[in-house]
Amino acid sequence: MQPFITQCNITFTGQTTYSTGNAPNSVVAADVNGDGKPDIIVVNYGSNNVGVLLNIGNGTFAAQTTYSSGNYPNSVVAGDVNGDGKIDIIVVNYVSNNVGVLLNRGNGTFAAQT
C-alpha cells in the first residue's frame, strides 16, 4: 500500500471586513434565513447585543442587524431549540449570569431574547 500525497497551492484573496458592535467576542456561521448560504452571527460584548450579517452571495454579507442581549454577551451558538426547523440563536450573557435565546421568525429575523 502506497499513500498518496496531495500537494495543493491554496491561496486566499484579500480580506473583507464588516462592521460590528463594540468588542466582538464570539462568532458562528449558520443559515438563519433558509437560503442555503451560511450567515454570520456575532456577539458584541461591549455593545450588549448580537449581530446577524446575512449572506448575500458571492462571498459578501449585508450590514449587521442587531438584537439586544443581556449584559456582556461573550459566547454564541446556533441551533433549532424549539423544533420548528429554523436556526435560533443562543447567547451566554456573562455579567447577567444567564443564557438568552433568540427565536428565529423564519425570514432571518429574530424575536427578542427570552
From TrEMBL:
Keywords: Signal
Listed Pfam families: FG-GAP_3
Protein name: VCBS repeat-containing protein
